[in-house]
Amino acid sequence: MDGSLAPRIVRTACPHDCPSACVLEVERLSPTRIGRVRGSAAYDYTAGTCCAKVARYAERVHHPGRLTQPLQRVGPKGSGQFAPIGWDAALDRIAEAFRAATARHGPEAVWPYHSGGTLGVLGRWGLDRLRHVMGYSRQKSTICITPAEMGWKAGHGAARGADPRGVAEADVILMWGGNPVSTQVNLMAHIQRARKRRGAKLVVVDAYRSPSIEAADIGLILRPGTDAALALAMMAVALEEGAADRAFLAAHTDWDAAVEAHIRRHTPAWAAEVTGVPEADILALARLYAGTKRCFLRAGVGFTRARNGAATMHAVSCLAALTGSWLHQGGGGFFYALDGWGLDTRLAWGSDLIDPKIRVLDQSRIGAVLAGEALAGGPPVAAMLIQNANSAEVAPDSHAVRRGLLREDLFVAVHEHFMTPTAALADIVLPATTFLEHDDLYLGLGHTALTVGPRVIEPVGEARSNHAVVCALAARLGAEHPGFGMTEVEVLDATLRSSGKGSWAAATAAGFIPAANEIAVGEAFAGFPQPDGRFRFKPDWPALGPYAAGMPGLPSYWLNLEEAAEATPFRLITPPARSFLNTSFTETPGSRSREGGPALRLHPADADRLGIADGARVRIGNARGALTLTAMRFDGLLTGVLAVEGISPSADFPEGIGINALVGADPVAPAGGVAFHDIAVWLRPA
Ligand code: SF4
């Protein structure tokens, strides 16, 4: 209790795979226990708000199912039979497997793998230091936002945008394809302030009636993957009615007569046919958007998780350039701030040691990689250490992922909080600390600041941090780098200092560090982060990735979707559930009871046609797999469209595998990514 009988409030930051990276205040009840968690008011983006999942984090950190000691497999692969093993012996086994794989096939046969289970500078990417020093296979992190990122970059030149706090000064907030009520509560708090103070209108566009559509002033529900058609028609109306900002287009974009003629062809009547949105609603939204100078375009990610997702994001992002809203406070647009962080990552990530000759494997294609079908020209993968990733449930084509992880000639170590389905397939399982048990810095991808996460309590059981595991393996493998001999705080402090961002001590005192990576709006607008400062209506897709063949050279509705066919007539989307975050929090009782079991939302007309009652058991499937779940009649989507919220645990499905078994792992143009909301399926009563 730090010499006091009163609980102490400790400021830290949320590490989870969520763009808010909230600054938090955690009630520390003892050196090993926490109480309540709340958003901190110290940083005005968090503004005292955090989500319910993290507010009850005590449920997760003190969960009886936490892994507390290293385990080794003692039964057949995937049998779930494990026995305790000491840390030294576990680390020796991993090092031995890495050495054996290297001796047999070369260092590229080792694939250190990480994903967004934490967005910590050290916790997520510190494994890269070991990778680069040892010459192990590199990783392309595509699973979340690559199509969105490429689509935004295509026009703007970088994944940067207006400061999202600008919504407070907007008269219209156009939330395209996101659901902040469920997934970004602090953004919603800023939007609510704008509505109260300025009478701002919230418009939400999505493929189903999400909680954010229910909270909006105007909600438009369209067919999945058709968002670009709506955006094009809105632009055509703006041109037709003289609402485009011609001076802005001439000064700050590559606009020309060919672009104009192309956009003008996309009438609201055509878009109504494509999207399923009534023509009158398209006209009304076009007039509201183009007629409002202070209109903030907040692009989400969900609508880009389709095979045409990057082209769709580009078309949507053209709206703010067409109307010149960047010249007005409360205007412009934002998706994620992925670029411009100004961090010197040499010490933390070994980023100066990257050898471009070493192959890069696509994390989203882990099933194909482990099957030897996507090896980028190198040897088979023979050994893995997986941190922050539950690939057996989260990666697409889950059957292929499981087959790969079960290969008898593959060694897998998983460093985790819980015995996830991925950990259950491993040879060695290591207990990981949560963010409350180690020090780190977090990238606030949904705003423009690093948030600072000092540890709050002692590690639970024998749990160790990702940094500690990387350093211990490095020592066994003879890997040399200054970062392997430093504590987390020493690495973070040195990183901040060499980045010109102060010290760890100053950062923890403040709680956050502004990155100043936003595109200025209003009078301060000084162009886009393109080489010539101009927004591109004519994107250079081949410059953005290797899968650009066939992509449209102008803003377009690119008909490149997993189209519904006779055998698979329904289109399925899998938006996030409010109480889960990917598969994190699927283990906590509060989240589990709020979400219930996996449910299939389907339009009542489709349900009637197929004789499916509310609550009936149904099966959905395609060539990749089939699943059984509970039907929920729901009139908040168009006929022919199905929605399953969240990644419910595989164990909740009778088939023992989850929703991503139905998702394809083919890479999305132009640079990879997963079409999580672009799935054609059949549906029948169970
Ligand atoms: S999950 Fe997101 S909203 Fe919840 S506390 Fe973490 S950063 Fe904030």
TrEMBL record:
Keywords: Iron, Iron-sulfur, Metal-binding, Molybdenum, Oxidoreductase
Listed cofactors: Mo-bis(molybdopterin guanine dinucleotide)
Keyword Amino-acid biosynthesis assigned: no
Keyword check for Iron: yes
Domain 4Fe-4S Mo/W bis-MGD-type as annotated: residue spans: 7-65
Entry superkingdom: Bacteria
Gene3D superfamilies: 2.40.40.20, 3.40.50.740, ADC-like domains, Dimethylsulfoxide Reductase, domain 2, Formate dehydrogenase/DMSO reductase
Name of a matching Pfam family: Molybdopterin
InterPro entries: Asp_de-COase-like_dom_sf (IPR009010), MoPterin_dinucl-bd_dom (IPR006657), Mopterin_OxRdtase (IPR006656), Mopterin_OxRdtase_4Fe-4S_dom (IPR006963), Mopterin_OxRdtase_prok_CS (IPR006655), Prok_Mopterin_Oxidored (IPR050612)
Family affiliation: Belongs to the prokaryotic molybdopterin-containing oxidoreductase family.
Official protein name in the record: Molybdopterin-dependent oxidoreductase
